[in-house]
Design a protein that fits this description.
316 residues; ADP-ribosylglycohydrolase; ADP-ribosylglycohydrolase family protein
Length: 316
């Protein structure tokens, strides 16, 4: 089924990027240049077996699972709590690598604070924790107007990351993902994705934040030299790095390995890159040996099938 293939391509693409990045998270770019990652490895930073994915994929799968039953911020927020408290949608029944902003938001949710008020709102709350999990929202592109889709993307970001900068990063990412789902190539999707959100962000309260996105909206993020691409846990760095990796690659494996070998927040940069690369190149072009090693592979495939059935056959 074509639509299931599209959902699986994005979810598996994200998850595999995550898993390849996990063993070398926090290593430097100099280390990665000296000893580049070329395959699915294990152990390393978190001492986990090969194919183990992190919170990036866990929270992505939590969101996707919730979307199978329609759109509910309360349900999404509750699934995030279950992930943290019960190891729900973890690779091997263990939670690790929890971002501080996400942790604080989940603590707020547990205390009964509503989802839209739980996330961090300060400028220092702009880690990449909402961007890394937002991809499933792109699959709503056929059942919502574009403006409504981006509004919901902002709401889902706000559960953990409520600052406008994080919301905008998620909106840009989803806009580009939608263009890829519509069949555009990466360069065209990047340009059209920016065009589609330009009016939303430059003619509203979000406009004050837009100077931070000048490099993304230059239409030439891919032209920047490697030395100017940062791969920290800052949301803007992750967005820029993922677009740079996607636009400077010609296949899925090249894109995610380029992301991992930037060093730094390797799992998230590769997950965010891998979601887009997966959609464009398709799950059939992800190395089969990587897919075979991934934890809970069948569960991910089943989730993709349910998500496709939910978002492509009904209006939510």
């Amino acid at each position: 089924m074509l639509t299931t293939t599209k959902t699986l391509s994005g979810l598996m693409g994200l998850c595999i990027g995550d898993a390849i990045g996990v063993p070398v998270e926090f290593t430097s770019r100099a280390e990665r240049i000296k000893s580049p990652v070329t395959s699915m490895q294990g152990y390393g930073t978190w001492d986990m077996p090969p194919g183990t994915w992190s919170d990036d994929s866990s929270l992505t799968f939590c969101l996707a699972e919730c979307l199978c039953n329609g759109f509910s911020l309360d349900a999404i927020a509750n699934s995030f709590w279950r992930w943290y408290d019960e190891a729900y949608w973890t690779a091997r029944g263990e939670v690790f690598d929890v971002g501080n902003t996400t942790f604080l938001a989940i603590a707020n949710l547990k205390q009964g604070i509503p989802p839209l008020e739980a996330g961090g709102k300060t400028e220092k709350s702009n880690g990449n924790g909402s961007l890394m999990r937002i991809l499933p929202m792109a699959y709503y592109h056929k059942s919502l107007t574009f403006a409504e889709l981006i509004s919901r993307v902002h709401q889902v970001s706000c559960i953990t990351h409520a600052h406008m900068r994080s919301q905008i990063a998620c909106g840009i990412y989803i806009s580009i993902a939608v263009c890829l789902l519509q069949g555009l190539d990466p360069q065209a999707a990047y340009l059209q994705g920016l065009e589609n959100v330009r009016q939303i962000y430059y003619t509203s309260e979000y406009a004050l934040e837009m100077p931070h996105f000048s490099r993304v909206f230059s239409d030439e993020i891919d032209k920047l030299p490697l030395e100017e691409i940062s791969s920290s846990g800052y949301v803007l760095d992750t967005l820029e790095a993922s677009l740079w990796c996607l636009l400077n690659s010609s296949n899925y494996a090249e894109a995610v390995l380029k992301a991992v070998n930037l060093g730094g927040d390797t799992d998230t940069t590769a997950a965010v890159t891998g979601g887009l690369a997966g959609i464009y190149y398709g799950v059939e072009n992800i190395p089969s040996e990587w897919i075979s090693q991934i934890a809970r592979k069948q569960d991910i495939m089943n989730l993709a099938e349910r998500l496709a059935a939910a978002v492509y056959t009904s209006i939510n």
